């Protein structure tokens, strides 16, 4: 495939923090993708909350299946725009590895507990996991990913003005140019994430019975898509039409993203990835109409899914587990597993950050099991199936 002039070129990569010999079979971005897939943090995503905590239903998304779906969308868009598919895929696969157990509840609790020690955010933690905490190589900590992959993960949503301590720690050693925009591959990965979770959360919400298709049709883009699907597949039962609805909407958003990004590229006419970084705005985007439609869909999902009473009921026990583990390890470090206790720093903030590293890496079920093994009592609603 011939790449566009503004695509990221692995042959022109800015390299890795630790120099390595080139692979005879894979370029820099292909190696990054493979390292991510083989990492422990990536495997743990299969038991980390996307929306439903440790779901009993086998068909609900987890962080792992969500990441795979984002990667499929990202590659498809990158191919249409003649971008580097391997870098796009690597970014899509890795974008959630910094999430703690129990989704946003876990992140909120760790942010509160870590407020006195520099805070916690999943994006900075993603960089920390990939550059420090993964230990699969004899010569260095982390996965030693390329500059372009780490840059894309750090600022896929735009320039970072005030990085948290975890991101700042790595940036001080390997300048990611946080003041600039990321590559177009990174921008596409971020919007592919939006497309995936908007529509797949709609799918999961319908499957879980949190809302009906009639309620979802309060969202204009859903109503229009549903009317078109029912007309096209007259007589087909509704559950199969719901799957067609999700497919249709993903297609609409992908087509809009490609068209609007092509429009911006034609107006901007960048000659290199450096021009993309210096553009002063995001080059990849939805059209204004689709931006409005996407925001409306998000509001519906927040009101009817993420803040549904069943999901709200999980917040308290999930927060109890994460907060209880943090407090217990701080007060009684002897309760940490041997390997984590052996490397526990003596002073804060490094000590608290070490404990946060341990908790953030847990899966939902491991955090719950460890909390109970340490004598904690917690009850989740029966439907949560934890």
Labels describing this entry:
18 helices; mainly alpha; 386 residues; single chain
Provide an overview of this structure:
Helix content is 60%, strand content 0%. The protein is mainly alpha-helical. α4 (85-94) packs across α9 (184-208) and α9 (184-208) packs antiparallel against α12 (238-268). The longest helix has 31 residues, at 238-268. The model has no long low-confidence stretch (mean pLDDT 94).
Mean pLDDT over the residues = 94
Shape: globular
| Low-confidence parts | none
Number of helices: 18
Give me the oligomer status. Answer: single chain
Strand content: under 5%
* Total strand segments: 0
Q: Would you tell me the structural class of the helices and strands?
A: mainly alpha
N-to-C series of helices and strands = HHHHHHHHHHHHHHHHHH
Main β-sheet, in a few words?
A: none
Rg calculated over all Cα atoms: 22 Å
Helix content: 55-70%
